[in-house]
Amino acid sequence: MPTCAVCGAALPDGTTCQDDFHQFLYWEFEHPDLGQVHHLMVLCYHIQHPHLYSVEGLRGAHELLRQFVATDISPQAMRQQIKEQVDSGNRQHSIRGTDSTRGRYPHKIPWTMHARDVVNGGHSHYVENVQTWAHAIYQSLLSEGILLST
Ligand SMILES: [Zn+2]
What we know:
single chain, mainly alpha
């Protein structure tokens, strides 16, 4: 079965993780209440495809994920926090990956949940599944020693 070269997701029908990402955006457009987890979804997707981030961007994303999981901050509060961070203009590093700086992991992470699992759950379970996805990613990063529990 074909898999995503980056995150290892099984992709049985020839689609890509990027297709799944676009499916999420479409759902959020069709059902505006689903937008409450937009930033969390973007965070999850990018953490599993770390080359989309710069090295600093990936580190910052891990900290945001930790805040979300460890403090049970609501997606709405998190959205506000990300917005403030982005709007502050004080950012010293671009969060986007470029040829000179790309996020990566020292070894392949055996993720237990992928974007495809959220797609398979359908839009009616999107909000809870994105939150489950975030927790699963956090656990994987902890057990792989990428994030240290504090
Ligand atoms: Zn992938």
